[in-house]
């Protein structure tokens, strides 16, 4: 019997108030639609609609998707934007510990 591979996505959306929301789902298209429909009044994105998908990564393991989500939530806005723009040089620069490496010039 063939087992169907299930995928999980960690994603970043840009909200109408210019903030970022990071989440995970197993159906990316449907989840973005749900954010924009405003299903849950208590959700972060409810009063910040519409949202626009800016970045996502596909995982085969839900634990990996959760790990990435938690990691991204700890990132600065500049670091998230470097990831979205695939600006690897800035991503590395914004990752450095300024107490160890000093402030960037």
From TrEMBL:
Q: Read off the Pfam families from this record.
A: GIY-YIG (PF01541)
Naturally occurring in which organism (per UniProt) = Mesonia mobilis
Provide the GO MF annotations for this entry.
endonuclease activity
User: What is the top-level taxon of the source organism?
Assistant: Bacteria
Question: What keywords appear on the UniProt entry?
Answer: Endonuclease, Hydrolase, Nuclease
**What range(s) does the GIY-YIG domain occupy?**
6-82
State which residue ranges cross the membrane: none
Instruction: Indicate the family of this protein.
Output: Belongs to the UPF0213 family.
Q: What is this protein called?
A: Endonuclease
């Amino acid at each position: 019997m063939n087992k169907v591979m299930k995928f999980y996505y960690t994603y970043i959306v840009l909200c109408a108030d210019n903030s970022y929301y990071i989440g995970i789902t197993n159906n990316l298209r449907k989840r973005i639609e749900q954010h924009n429909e405003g299903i849950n009044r208590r959700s972060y994105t409810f009063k910040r609609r519409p949202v626009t998908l800016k970045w996502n990564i596909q995982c085969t393991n839900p634990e990996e998707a959760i790990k990435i989500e938690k990691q991204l939530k700890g990132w600065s806005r500049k670091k998230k934007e470097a990831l979205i723009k695939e600006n690897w040089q800035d991503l590395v620069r914004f990752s450095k510990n300024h107490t160890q490496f000093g402030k960037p010039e």
